Amino acid sequence: MTTARTVTLDARIYKPSAVKATIKDYSDVSDIKMEKDGRTIIVTFESWPEEYEDTIEFEFCNYTLWKMRN
Q: Global pTM?
């Protein structure tokens, strides 16, 4: 069993709507929750596949930035 991981994002850079869209897209890969507190977005990851052990947070953040490209 994997331990939960968290990533803290700056809401001035990461749009909450893009984070929510990424969570939806990643719903088959991991259990992900988001909390927003002012300028901070806290994303919690649980239960991801072993092959993403070293990259889940980075891939999530990159994909979120990609979702904001327009």
A: 0.89
